[in-house]
Amino acid sequence: MSTLRQAVQEYLNVRRALGFKLTGAAKGLLDFVAFMERRHASYITQSLALEWARQPLNLQSASWAQRLSFVRAFARYSSATDPRTQIPAQSLLPFRPRRARPYLYSDDEISKLLQAALQMPYRYERGALLPWTYHCLLGLLSVSGMRLGEARNLELQDVDLTAAVLTIRGAKFGKSRLIPLHASTCKVLADYIARREQHWAGRSVSSFLFISSRGNRLDNSEIHRTFYRLSRQIGLRGESDSHGPRLHDMRHVFATRTLVHWYQCGDDPERRLPILSAFLGHAHVADTQWYLSASPELMREAMRRLEQRWENRS
């Protein structure tokens, strides 16, 4: 094993021990090492990093920038033990990602989505639970602020209906957290779990909460395909639309409604924002602030409070 290849493996082990998954970075860095070995280069230079990042030529600039960022982070680590290492400048291949504009679902749209899930057709008896599965999954996403991956990874042991708490394990950056549940949410979850137990009685089934007709964890791609079908069915998307409201937008709805509720109750949203960040599983409050940037209702509440402050000063 070359010194550079060994250094990459040590770097990946250290980062993963800190909770980073590095799936794309690991694949990219191993490819970068192979590139360096073909060039008989024993240490990183800016020119070689740039040359590798721009391969293949048909990639978009965003992909080039991402590839270079993999090497830049590794180069910072490697420079501590090899002073010859050149860290690629931040000005190389600059790219600012464009975040998708969030869609803020109305209560009526969410209600229609949940009703459409309950009316999903199924061909065989083994699929009879799927309408209830998607009804519960979509409803939970809309009221909990969970990421889809976190909901998919829920196991029965993570659902404590007595304490009204969900345990999220190994989420982003390897963190875990607790999510309190409203009594109405507990009722829906209890009903789904009872139906799940009855449907799979006497048969082998996965311990995951949300399962497919085969008894294993719901497939991520299949969830999205089902969501798109339901969205077109209720008019959220056109029949030929390739873009539209996303499942991830449920988190935006949860975040903005929580903050609006605090405004309306007279609470101090600025003081309570770290609580919302922890609830959503964000490492920084700035990540939460992005979720709050597109709500007209939230802007109205903020302006109303600002006007009241001006009136009190006059």
Strand order of the largest sheet: 1-2-3
How many strand segments?
A: 3
Largest sheet: 3 strands, antiparallel
User: In the CATH hierarchy, what is the superfamily of the largest domain?
Assistant: Intergrase catalytic core
GO molecular function: DNA binding
InterPro entries: DNA_brk_join_enz (IPR011010), Integrase-like_cat_sf (IPR013762), Integrase_catalytic (IPR002104), Tyrosine_recombinase_XerCD (IPR050090)
Protein name: Integrase family protein
Keywords: DNA integration, DNA recombination, DNA-binding
Outline the structure in words.
The structure is a single chain. The protein folds into three domains: 3-78; 107-234, Orthogonal Bundle (hpI Integrase, Chain A), CATH 1.10.443; 249-313, no CATH class. Helix content is 55%, strand content 3%. The protein has 13 helices and three strands. It has helices at 3-17, 23-38, 46-53, 61-78, 107-118, 130-144, 148-152, 183-199, 220-234, 249-264, 269-280, 285-291, 296-313, and strands spanning 159-160, 165-168, 177-180. Helix 3 (46-53) runs antiparallel to helix 4 (61-78), helix 5 (107-118) packs antiparallel against helix 6 and helix 5 (107-118) crosses helix 9. The mean pLDDT is 86. Keywords: DNA integration, DNA recombination, DNA-binding. InterPro entries: DNA_brk_join_enz, Integrase-like_cat_sf, Integrase_catalytic, Tyrosine_recombinase_XerCD. Belongs to the 'phage' integrase family.
